[in-house]
Amino acid sequence: MATAGGFKAIRSVWRYALKIGPINLFKTVTSKNACKACAFGTGGQSGGIWNERHHGIEICNKNIQAHLSDIREGIANPVFMQRSIDELSKLSGKELEDLGRLVTPLYKKAGDSHYSPISYEQALEKITEKLKQTEPKRSFFYASGRSSNEAAFSLQLMARLWGTNNINNCSYYCHQASGEGLTATVGTSTATIEYDDLYEADTIFVFGANPASNHPRFVKTLIECRRRGGQVVVINPAKELGMQRFASPSDVKSMLIGGEKVASHYYQPHLGGDLALMLGIAKALIEKGQIDHDFIQKHCDDFSAFDTHVRSLKWPELVNSSGVSEKEIRQIAAIYAKAKKAVFTWSMGLTHHLQGVANIETIAALALMRGMIGKPGAGLMPLRGHSNIQGTGTMGFTPSLKAPVKKALEAELSHHFPSDAGLDTMACMDAAANGDMDLAFNLGGNLLASNPDTTYATDALNKIPFKVYINSTLNMSHVHAVDQEVIVLPIRVRDEEQQATTQESMFNYVRMSNGGINRFPQLRSEVDLITELGSKIIDKNIFDFSQLRSHQSIRELTSKVVSGMEKMASIDASKQEFHIDGRILHSPNFNTANNKAAFRVHSPVARKAGQFMLSSVRSESQFNSIVFDERDSYRDQEHRWVVMMNIEDIHEQGLKVGAKVDISTDTGTMKAVEVSAFDVRRGNVLCYYPEANILIPRATGERSHTPAFKSVAISIKPSS
Known about the structure:
By secondary structure, the chain is of the alpha/beta class.
């Protein structure tokens, strides 16, 4: 059987190393800085290739790919004079990235055909002037998860003191449903486990995720679970190579034997069928009496309603909706019933649905049914993407601050923030489309490529008279939807910072990054730019932003006002990284009003017969919207303009592998897409993100405000 990872990953890393220089790469990955890739987390004060467990070297190709963006030559100013924005807009995301690092601020007036290099001083004066002219509520501030805690805290504070709560981050387009569902059931919006708990678990469930491509070091922990005799149950409509067999480059044994099996059991539900599948597992457990009544009685509310509802569900309904047979569902339940310590993990295969919150509340219910929260070695873990997306939320880069944080921060500053409800990301896009936004301020990310309905998003962003982008490289947002006034501010990346910064992993673990590499001396840090703007637009009698130019001062302030972050006050002196207090649940004392967890009742989603459903997916050679290689070696795809279908569906539609088809929704059409055979549940297809965004409707979950990137009804027709 073929193997993912291994020498494929090593060859990939070697290609990247040759591009940027092996010595440069070595210096970067071994420096005392947190990994720039996913939120699984490594690096910091232990060194770039160690995590908090300190058991062996930790490195993966996602880490290397993330560094590839940063260790490039700078883009020379003449490039922007020679190449028009229209010309740049014809480049792919990868080609824009390959142009190199941004090293000079860029500016264009409305109607300009080219960007013009300007100084930081000129750029900040223009931004200051626009902020002073703009009604705060007609603006929004957006952040990705690649920035530091210090930058996120400073910018959200500036925005609120200026007068707006339209502050949101990219989690609204990924894991917002996780935060909503977990808060409603177990009282915390993040993982309930720490890293070490994965090594105590005897059963690990992986729902709706492809860690081999997106969180490779997690696959190493799954392999180690199998070595202990544990079970790894993968639930995914697509049969991903890396979740069947994987060779971890940071594990000698794995490499020497040519890889190891990852999944002990692999089940393929329909896209959107996870809710019915989980309810079926719950039904099988209840029917067999395989639940922990004592735990439920002592530590949970509302089980009676859940129990009654699940018993009333009919097996044919659950099978039809899930796409998984009753026999297989009972098999999963039996595996779970034998577990003494189980961890449930998931990614956007559960959250990217209109019923995303229902999915999370139901996976929490499965854990609660057998007392698998509130003890070591068991619990819930959303697999988050960006390396500091969790920290961005912790720092308050959200439309509303958590009540204790708001109260503490207002008391510390002796100032009240705006009381109106801020807008989530899609609401900001809708306001822009309606002409109700005059200014957008983007801290990292690629907002255009992150949005569903590309045509709508382009039009909406184009209607905003003034946009600011803070980025290290060019992306699609800089060359599309930029008819009006735009400023692009280049910045130092994490390992180039001249003061230490902090980041938070998906395990609620706060790392400190030293920075220190000085690739481009002329660049300024995010915090430096934000605090200078804050000093220009916020009255010093309200708050003196100049004091936040010291990153240590920001950490001292956050330690006073952000719940669980008290240790931030001493991290500069102690260098002691830490878990945020009150989040990891090793005892069943839940952070709710009565200290009990809660069951929530949801019904399965009906599936229309004969309807193809589409999910957008990322490739092995991709990190979020950044594409490093057009090829996807783990899925054997040579390019990205493909639709991956079950071979039986291909034949039933009268198609052949390699044929060209048009894929349509009410939102848009992808034309002349190449058909490729792939092991995916019949009736379901896969296309790459962000290319497939043109098909994704703008409808969002009622509580998560997240679009359904992974369950979209489509039609497929041969191209004319």
